[in-house]
Amino acid sequence: MTHNPLLLLLLDSSGRSSDLVKALQKKDLALTVVRSEAEARRWLEENQCQAILLAVSSLQSHDSFLGDLQEVASPVAIIVAASEPSVNDAVVALQAGATDYLEAPVNETRLDAALDKAGVSRRNSPVVPAPAKAGKGCAAIIGNSSVMRQVFSLIKKVCDAETTVLVRGESGTGKELIAQALHYEGVRGGGPFVPVNCGAIPGELLESELFGHEKGAFTHAIRTRLGRFELANGGTVFLDEISEMSPMLQVKLLRVLQEKEFERIGGTKTISSDFRVVAATNRDLEQEVQAGRFREDLYYRLNVIPIEAPPLRERLQDIPLLAEHFVARFNRLRKKKIKGGGG
Asked: Which helix or strand (DSSP H or E) is residue 307 part of?
């Protein structure tokens, strides 16, 4: 077997990946470039690498190859960079085991994060992924049951994806903790996490909360106010109780998810903001769609990556850990020294 480059780069015939190649070359990576699936297969038969980066126009002509890589090159990390990105391709890539789906031209920060996540090191200076902030991310969720380990695994897998995530589960199952973990475990963890409870804010005020308003837009609008989407630039917007959103706002949210652009109430200037949306609900959105209370197109836009928050009855082995956590929290807040007991 020959030497082991760290990164195998497959370029398709679109010819739109020169900037990506230059960016990778500047990083002084051990890099091997191939131009076809057949060439990649031959190379993998005789060589090993830490990660494979597919720089393609779209996955339509490469999806079977992506699936084959799980057998040909397992457990190598796989990154997809698409010059013609689509939600469907992102879902296909992640379901096929890709660790990241990037939109070309690739932002250098996103590229670095994807390489870090894939464990790709520079020749002279190994790259160490930055851990989630202490007490945040998955570390903030109490649980070690098999069902929770599956949730943690899914969070780690999709935390850097740009697609929307829908967290589903009963009230009290920790949906916001999962949303926070998705944020703090990923590349956006250094940006703001902006939660919005769509069920707790009256409908007439929710629009202003989300989009902001200009001074004088309505009575008592005495100053310009930035909305949650604008405040979340570089981070994550968490839309809790999304099923409570009015039909009018559902239409506006659909446009924001598609364009990442909006106007403040009373304003004419279009504002762009770079944010990811994580939504949550304790309702059956399929039934809400059938009843005409929730838009079908918005449902599919939100439900790109679903995560189920399991109820406590499905994770009984976590009860001792939770009890220990709450006793310690009570002791800390009340300055007591109560000990958890058994038997």
From this structure: strand 305-308
